[in-house]
Batch of 2 targets.
Target 1
Amino acid sequence: MTETKSSFAPLTAYSPRKKAQSFVQKDSVVIEGVDISGQWNKMFDAREITSYDLTHMDKLTAIPGAESMGWCYQCAQCIPACPVDNAGGDYGPRKIFRRLQTGVDIFNHSDMWLCTSCQNCVRVCPKEVDMVQIMPAARAAAVLEGNVPDELVEMFQNVSEYGNPMGQSARKRVKWTRGAGVDIRILPKDAQPVDVLWFVGDYYAYHDRGNDAAQAMARVFSRLEIDFGILGADERCDGDSQRIAGEPGLFEELARHNIEQFEKYEFAKIVASGPHAYNAIKNEYPKFNGGSGFPIEHYTQFLSQHLDRLTPLLTRPFAKKVTFHDPCYLGRHNGEYDAPRKLLQAVPGIEFGEMFRCKQQGYCCGGGGGGMWLDGFAAEHQTERLSENRVKEAIQVGAEVLAVCCPYEVSRFEDAVKSTDNDGKLEVLDIIEILDQCME
Amino acid sequence: MKLVVLLKRLPDLVEDLEVDDSGKALDTEFLKFTLNEFDDYALEEALLLKEATDGELTVIALDGEDVDKMLYTALAKGADKALKIENAGEASGNRGLAGIFAKVVSSLPHDLVLTGVQSAEDIDGQLAPMVAAILDEPCVEVVTQVATADGGVSIHKEYSGGVVAEFEIDTPAVVGIQASRQAPRYAPVSKVRQIQESTTLETVAGSAADTSVFTVVQMTPPETGGGAQMLGNIGELIKVLESKGVI
Ligand code: SF4
Ligand code: SF4
């Protein structure tokens, strides 16, 4: 066999389905009147990439909402921004695009489920490849096809049957109120108009450590003489994480239910314990009630407007080194970085310091976008949990307390402190718990 | 292969169960109903079988609260037909229920009838054998896998101590399912809703077969004991016995 002597010849080795003779070697090439003849003009032939099967790429980018996956030009800026890649997940939009380009079926691949929708890649991507839009749309298609991790199935089923991911009875949603030590108006039983309709949320209502925060919130509200009420057993999961995990139908059902409850009562604003409920009610619920939505604030936003009355009540010093974890859905998704910091700065005796990755560049706890229920699944594809990565950073900056303001996070980070053998080195507290501790 | 799955709804155990004023039944005011977990396994196993054999799957349930949603969900998962048995009255226990189910099943062409091996409110595991007896068909209980074998059906039955036996049975037959090969699949809400909007459930009038049934005389919550006290040594035991006036 005679071989054409060419510096490009080895290229054929990467193109298994293409024979060497398919290279076009023209004697002369003239383009727009310019003679550009030369050995390199064989590059006018199609690139090797066309020999891959693009069925799955085409299927994904044809889904409304997921189109932008196809816009990636492989600059890789997203990879160092991706917390999953950072935790050993070999992940990020660039890698997903490349795998799709080489024929990988993402609908049957772990890539479909590892994204936490933290939005950090969206922040840096010059091509506006938007994982926060792509993932829910693609996952909804995967769920319809029945390709969904068992851990998520269990969660979907619980939320659909009981209105909360724990699969607990709706009637037990108010059990935590008994330990609060203050009166809490349950609106379905006492429908008087209130200033604040407090959307308590699943983790505050049902999780042990969430109960602590919920009770702290009730006490702080009472000390501030805030006229508030809760939906009690009629509240359901806000649905946002279910939406992003691929169950838009379930989300709509939950949204419509909660909207129906909101419409029964008179209130000035809704205050949400969690950033996910806040995000859902602020940005998604308006789609289901004629676009008008409801006035909604995250609790840190609400309380930071009452600092004039709150600060004098914080009399007991909290002399500890504290750092703060920005929740993705309060920070990057909704642009709120100041409110939680204002509250922490009002704490007497506090020594506050930031972590390296904070505010716009904040790291993710791993709980968003369905990650809350995928720890087992993620463990098979990452070298560590995102929450473990984060608590190590908090310890590295010398913090004694990691302050949070998302109901997913207390339990996630407490588990991570234990699993990284840092028991006793870092306390995890909701900001509301710190405020409550400072009140005599 | 023509498959029939018998579904039963049960009070959901996430709520505390209470006896009503009659003292003979559960207070259903705050009760939520849900599909019997074992029936969900039976449905999953039947769906796998349907897919493997290009079969036809019918689900049947007695009418009642939350039953429509249960049947629409089964259709969304892949069942071809859902039958709701109306006006059958309250079935008392598995005997009554077996009579009602068997009457309906006898009018349906079928190769295999699958149902949960037991349910939380009736743990005698008698539904499948009684339906089989009325239909005069063979029955295997505590089944963990069903597959087609030449001419018949091959079945894995579980015994205590983790022992599994493989059976071949002639069809038509009835099986009581202990577990499905894979976790029951999820029916997305949008799919259930779509089915609900585009399908009407078929109904069939129910009547009991000639089986003897029982009547509930009294229902009470189980008595809770006082709890056990762990004693550390013989001295403590003597003290307890003395305090009770035994010695
Ligand atoms: S930053 Fe955007 S364009 Fe660049 S590799 Fe990532 S997804 Fe592609
Ligand atoms: S949204 Fe976050 S987790 Fe998802 S790919 Fe982008 S950076 Fe990674």
Target 2
Amino acid sequence: MGLGQTIRNSQLWKSIFRHPAPLDRRNRIVVMLTNFFLHLHPVSIKKQGIALSYTWCMGGVTFFLFLVETVTGVLLMFYYRPTTEWAYRDIQNLADVTSLGIMRELHRWGAHAMVITVWLHMYRVFLTGSYKPPREFNWVVGVILLVLTLLLSFTGYLLPWDQLAIWAITVGSNMARATPLLGHEGPGQQLLTLGGVDLITNMSDARYVLLGAREVANETLNRFYVLHCIAIPLAVATLLAIHFWRVRKDGGISGPL
Amino acid sequence: MHGYDPAFEKAVAEFLGIYYLGLAALNAGAAYWLWQKLHKVRDAVVWLAVALGFVVLAAVSMGGAPWGLPHGLRELLNTIFTGNRGAVIFTLGSFALLVILFRFRRFFVRPRVAWTILNLSLLYLGLSMTSRPFWEIVAKPDNVPIVALAFLLGFFTWLATYKAVQNDERIKQGLPPLEKEDSEKVLVWPDLVYTELICMLALTAVLLFWAIFIKAPLEQPANRADTPNPSKAPWYFLGLQEMLVYYDPWMAGVVLPTFIILGLMAIPYIDFNKKGNGYYTIEERKFAYSMFQIGFLQLWVVLIILGTFLRGPNWNFFGPYEPWDAHKVLVLNNVNLSEYFWIDLMGMSVPEGILAREWLGIVLLIAYLFLLPPILAATIFRQFFIKMGFIRYMIMIQLLLWMLLLPIKMVLRWTINLKYIIAIPEWFFNF
Ligand code: HEM
């Protein structure tokens, strides 16, 4: 009996994996049904649904990048304090001091890559007409995921607190000032008054809500940090679960009828 | 312009040496594949020769003096693509290019043609790198993804079109699409699980390489007092920032993005065409296909590329090899429609009352948004209107009209310096 065999026959191994090694047809089916992670997939699938030239694997790649971002992001959080006093220095030290210096690169390039792959995934889904019935709703879920991916990237852009960061966020959030009705420079804001007092000022408009201040400041850093590390990832994770569930329930990867 | 800078020359020479070697390997790989797998010896020889050409380029680059585009050609491109006229030529030119690619797709998807185009564009990129202004923009760490995006989109558009052309040919002959041939079922373990594993490993390798060779940027600490020029939003929002030139912030930053998101979500409910579900095709869904491509490739991706590479200080438009000079002054004399109408056409002064002043723009906008749809419904979109019903038709046509308003406004700005069709600054309402 080889070593592999011994390990696979041990009580410990068997307590974790509830099935024999997937070496024959029967056990290849069993593994898909009994393993928590694998049961996301069906047991068998049309050949065309797994052809790389059909799906480009772009949804899968996007998901993988989301996982990479989660892991590298958690590691970065160990070293980073979201205050204007520390943020920049922590990022700087990350490269020089810690042995995990490359995490920042992985996290940043992974984020760029995720924006690209999510677009490519949408592109593929459109070009194969996979949004057509019965997959309309999953396309809608996808669009929300796309927006959340962009917001994840956008909120993260501020965190290094360098010139690139605050000015990109300033440019990006200036527009909120002009939200119709709710921005203090937007059309219709003068309509919202209470007893002659303007409700929408630069201390209460949409931009203020976004930034937590009248300009990109300490409060903004905190707000974006919480959004970036907690709120948006949780929303993405929830929607991803729905997205994957619906891929299965809508009949698996699309294909010609 | 720039004087001789040894550090820059060295960086470019080193980069190009490796870059051309990579291209040589790419072509040698293609040659090997053609020869071994497809037994097309003649093609293999051609690409092998191309690979050797790249080896020569690599050697020259490593020698320290990489070849660049001829000075005259650079100057020519700079003069073509500069200022307002440059923006017109770039945008309309890329649109014309997309139309040509689409119209003659059967020719362009041929692997030989596509591979030639790929080689030429990679060569052009390499030859351009010796220009310092070009290098400084393209090799900026945060801009690398945009170059990657351009090539990835090129590749995947080719792949999808290649399959669509094949399928369309088959459908014409009464055959099912190629995807149908693969409807036999296979087990997910091992076929899919292993594919996924390999994808993950490959991707991890790419990310690691990227992270090792390109450092994440960190500029000076944030400083409110020092506004960089240009101040750019993150690259994926540059399309929106570009819209700010033509629209007020409440439109470019709030209303239009909302329309984009809602419009994307609405696609499955608007597109009533049952065909083309689950396989690549163009013929069977030409209208949906072309509208999506205008929105995605032209109005989203092209604007991002424009915003990243060609928009410099003061959001001026610069040629690809033109140094970004913050003191370059472009005389911009934008005129509102009301001024055109009252002053230039009627020879009067602009009236006081808002409605009296702006009536022409208001009428035009209302006609565009509310008169055009029924006219179209009665004429070219007759079939759509009948099949879709009133509400769905209206939603579709509004989304399309709003989308097309952007290029219309762009062209009007560049050609006749039109600022706003309706300008009511009193109410923060400019359009
Ligand atoms: C965080 C972002 C996203 C992730 C991780 C994700 C993941 C996935 C995965 C793994 C699949 C399985 C098939 C494949 O890999 O292509 C899939 C399918 C699908 N996705 Fe996404 N997706 C995302 C965003 C989107 C977006 C932006 C859209 C569209 C706007 C979209 C629409 C769809 C649809 C309609 C399907 C079913 C396709 C079919 O059956 O062929 N998804 N997604």
